[in-house]
Amino acid sequence: MNGVEIKIADRLIGADHQPFIIAEMSGNHNRSLDRAMEILKIAATTGAHAVKLQTYTADTMTINHTGGLFDITDKKSLWYGRNLYELYQEAHTPWEWHKPLFDYALELGLICFSTPFDETAVDFLETLNVPCYKIASFENTDHHLLKKVAQTGKPVIMSTGIANLADIIESVQVLKENGCNKIVLLKCTSTYPSTPENTNLVTIPVLQQIFRDCIIGLSDHTMGVGASIASVALGARVIEKHFTIRRADGGVDSTFSMEPEEMKQLVIESERAYLAMGKVQLDVQKAEEKSKMFKRSIYIVKDIRAGELLTKDNIRIIRPGDGLPPKYYDMALGKRARSDIKRGSPLGFDFLNLS
To answer: How many CB atoms are closer than 10 A to CB 89?
Structure first.
């Protein structure tokens, strides 16, 4: 892995640091500021490192129109039967909520930032002194937005869903050319929820090879924590998951959002996965030294007199491990004992007449 590090607020992110876990609130506040505050409070108890909002209005996202692609007609969609404007009206986080949410997150020890969806959102978020910006998959080819965000000089976390490699290369170049050199790219499958089969985590090390000066992570829309934990082993150092209090409470993103117990599990297990990666080990490590005594070795299992032959009846390969290693068993058979040996003694070369 590369040695690239990025600092967001007071936290370092990179290959040599445990994964940075982001709880994405999205529209799970269900149009209640009190609920939004509660989501932040509970997120802090799970050990998540950051919470992320979304900054837009229905009017900054689209126009109020029906017909064509303005209508959500896919019966499998969580949002079937609405038009885009109606969906964004319900899901957006009112801008007047942002400051109290940012202030409360700070009190809780959470890093708080947001996804802007247009240039006016960037201007607004700058008044709140956000520590970084997130670019959603649906906006990752909006070069006007990318330029605006890059020019703030803040780190940028960008999802790579619904984009091919050429798109990603181009967008990263736009960010760099406009002053952003602290970039996190999140492998992302923009289906809601995603399936394990379409998550394609093996893309993570490939992205790292291509974008050597970026940090790679995962925006995970699958259910559970399995995909996220596996991503850590492949190099992901930032993990973003949608978060809610209870899926049963409903909400535009609730069905594929994590509940508190799951988020806590993600925080714990992702750190364990990171620590377990360790370093290449091809020898007995110090922590294992005491366990060497429990390996098998050659032992005397019947009293043997000096000059007596060693046979399958009086020596065996057993635990513990302070006798000769098992590889010498065939060599020892048929040799004569140099002295009396008591049952339960580990066999050593000094007991054998090797001439």
So the answer is: 16
H helix runs in the chain, sequence order: 33-46, 58-61, 84-91, 95-108, 119-126, 143-150, 165-177, 203-210, 226-233, 260-277, 329-332
- 274-304: per-residue pLDDT in tens? 999 999 999 999 999 999 999 999 999 999 9
**DSSP one-letter code for 346:** B
Q: Are 36 and 62 in contact (CB under 8 A)?
A: no
- 15 is written with which tokens? 């290959």
* pLDDT value, residue 1: 59
As beta bridge partners, residue 337 has: 352
Contact call for residues 298 and 347 (beta carbons, < 8 A): yes
Q: Which CATH class is domain 12-56+92-277?
A: alpha beta
List the beta bridge partners of residue 242.
Answer: 24
Give the percent of the chain with pLDDT over 70.
100
Dist CA 132 CA 217 (whole Å): 15
CATH architecture under which domain 286-353 falls: Alpha-Beta Complex (3.90)
For residues 214 and 172, the answer to whether their CB atoms sit within 8 Å is yes
The answer to whether 244 touches 28, Cβ cutoff 8 Å, is yes
What is the Cα–Cα distance from 246 to 257, expressed in whole angstroms? 9
Residue ranges per domain, the chain?
Answer: 12-56+92-277, 286-353
Task: Check pLDDT > 90 for residue 342.
Answer: yes
Contact 122, 139 (CB under 8 A): no
Q: How many residues does the chain have?
A: 355
Helices then strands, counting H and E runs in the chain, come out as 11, 14
| Amino acid identity at 289 | E
